[in-house]
Amino acid sequence: MDALSIKRRFGIIGTSHALDRAVTVASQVAPTDLSVLVLGESGVGKEVMPRVVHHFSKRKHGPFIAVNCGAIPEGTIDSELFGHEKGAFTGATESRKGYFEEANGGTIFLDEVAELPLTTQVRLLRVLETGEFIRVGSSKVQKTDVRVVAATNVDFSSAIQRGRFREDLYYRLSQVPIEMPPLRARASDIHLLFRKFTTDFSEQYQMPPLSLSPDAVEVLENYPWPGNIRQLKNTTEQMSILEIERRIDSDTLLSYLPESHRSRLPIREAVDSESTMNEREILYKVLFDMRREMQDLKQVVHDLMQGTSHQSDPDLARRLFEQPPASLKGLPVGRNDESDPVSVADAGGWVRQEDPSIGPMKATNDAEEVEEIEEVLSLQDSEKELIRRALAKHRNRRKYAALELGISERTLYRKIKEYGLK
Ligand SMILES: Nc1ncnc2c1ncn2[C@@H]1O[C@H](COP(=O)(O)OP(=O)(O)OP(=O)(O)O)[C@@H](O)[C@H]1O
Ligand SMILES: [Mg+2]
C-alpha cells in the first residue's frame, strides 16, 4: 500500500516528504519482526505509527496492547508488564497475567519507553532477546512471542549518558528507528491540519468552521509550534469555541500563541488600528461609548437631584463637557485593548434590554431626560441594525446570528419580534 492510502486509512494528515517517509518505513518494516522505535518531539503524532506497524504485520489478527510506561507507578510496572503470582506482594490476592503474556502472538506498544525504571529495563531486554520472562514472585521462566514497538520524545543519548537508560536496550529497541518530523519542519502541512481540525470541531460543537486571513496563515506557518500537532489542535479548538468572528486575523491568532516562541514570526508593520477595525467592532465601540456617556449623564442628573454639583467630580465634568463625545473618536475595541475594561465578548450581555443601566430614566430635568431618551433610541437603532446585519450575514440562521452577537437565541428571538425584524 502506498503512503497516501495508509495516511487516508489512519487519518494521518500531511503531504510533507518527511511524513511520507516515516509512514513508508513503518509499512515496509511491518512484515518483519524487527523492533521499531518511533522518535520525535512531543505532540508530533507518534502514537499512530505502532498501529500502522501492527496492521501491516502478520500479527494483525493477534492482540495489540498499548502501554504508557510513564503513567504506571514504578512499584507496579514489573507486575503490569510481566504478571505476578498470588502472594508476590501485599495485595496480590490472585495471580495475574502481564501484558507480555496477554500480547502473545501480537504487538506491544511501549509508549514513553524512556520512563521505564532500570530494573524493568533488564527484564525488557531479556524478553526482547530470548522471548523469556518471569512473573513477579515466581521462579518459572515462561515464553512469549511479542513484537515490540516503542516511542519516546526523550533524547536517548543524554538519558544514556546520565545512566537513566541502558545502552544495550536502546540498540535492541531501535532496530528500525522512525523519526517523526516536528511540525515546524512541515510548514506546508500546518494550514492543512488547521483546516482539518476546524472542520472537525465545527461538527463537534455545531458552529461554522474558522477561516484564516492571509496574514494569519503567515503567522500560523511561521510559528515554531513547540507543542507540535497537539498544540495546533488545542489552539484551533480554543479559537473554535471562543471566537465569535469566524474569520481569524493574525492579531487574534497571536493572542492564542505563547509569547516566548514568537521570535521566528515575521515582524509586521505597525498599522493604523482604526483602519483595521471592522464594521462590527466600530458599532460595538459606539455602543460602549454611548453607554459610558449615558452613565456619566445619569450621575450628573443624580447629583443635581441630590443638590450636589457635578463639579465635585472634575473628571466626570471634563469627560462630559470639555471633550468631544467618546463615540465620535472611534477608538478601537479589541482583546488587546487593555485600557478598555469592556471586551467585545461582553457586548452580548450588555445589549440586552433588561440591563438596568439602559432602562428608562426617572430624571426630573427635562433637557437631560430628552437627551437621554434620544440616546436610548439611538442605542436601540444601533442594536436593531446590528441584529439585522448579523441575520443577513448568516442568511437568517438565528443560531449563528445569536452566536455572533453573543446573545442567546431566545434573546435574539425576542429582539426580532420587538423590532419587527423579518
Ligand atoms: N498527521 C496527523 N494528522 C492528524 N492528527 C494528528 C496527526 N498527528 C498527530 N495528530 C493528533 O495530534 C495529537 C498528538 O499526537 P500524538 O498523541 O500521537 O503525539 P505524540 O507524538 O505521541 O506526543 P507525546 O510524545 O507528547 O506523547 C493527537 O490528538 C493526534 O490525533
Ligand atoms: Mg504520545
Structure description:
The protein is of the alpha/beta class and 422 residues long. The chain has three domains: 3-181, Rossmann fold (3-Layer(aba) Sandwich); 184-269, Helicase, Ruva Protein, domain 3; 279-418, no CATH class. 49% of the residues lie in helices and 8% in strands. It has helices at residues 3-10, 17-29, 49-55, 77-82, 99-102, 118-130, 156-161, 167-173, 187-205, 214-222, 228-242, 250-255, 273-276, 279-306, 314-322, 326-329, 347-350, 366-393, 398-405, 409-418; strands at residues 36-39, 64-68, 107-111, 132-134, 141-143, 147-152, 176-179, 211-212, 247-248. The strands form three sheets. The protein has a five-stranded parallel sheet. The protein has a two-stranded antiparallel sheet with strand order 4-5. A two-stranded parallel sheet has the order 8-9. β4 (132-134) and β5 form a beta hairpin. α6 packs across α8 (167-173). The protein starts with a helix and ends with a helix. Mean pLDDT is 82; it is low at 268-277 and 322-364. Bound molecules: adenosine-5'-triphosphate and magnesium ion. Adenosine-5'-triphosphate binds at residues 11-14, 40, 42-48, 153, 229-230, 233.
CATH architecture name of the largest domain = 3-Layer(aba) Sandwich
Shape type: elongated
- In the CATH scheme, what's the topology name of the largest domain? Rossmann fold
- Strand order in space, largest sheet: 2-3-6-1-7
Tell me the major beta sheet: 5 strands, parallel
Rg, alpha carbons: 32 Å
- N- to C-terminal separation? 56 Å
Report the sheet-strand fraction: 5-15%
What is the CATH first-level class name of the largest domain? Answer: Alpha Beta
Count of strand segments: 9
Q: Which structural class matches the secondary elements?
A: alpha/beta
Which series of helices and strands comes N to C? HHEHEHHEHEEEHHEHEHHEHHHHHHHHH
- Segments where pLDDT lies below 50 for 5+ residues? 268-277, 322-364
Question: Compounds present?
Answer: adenosine-5'-triphosphate, magnesium ion
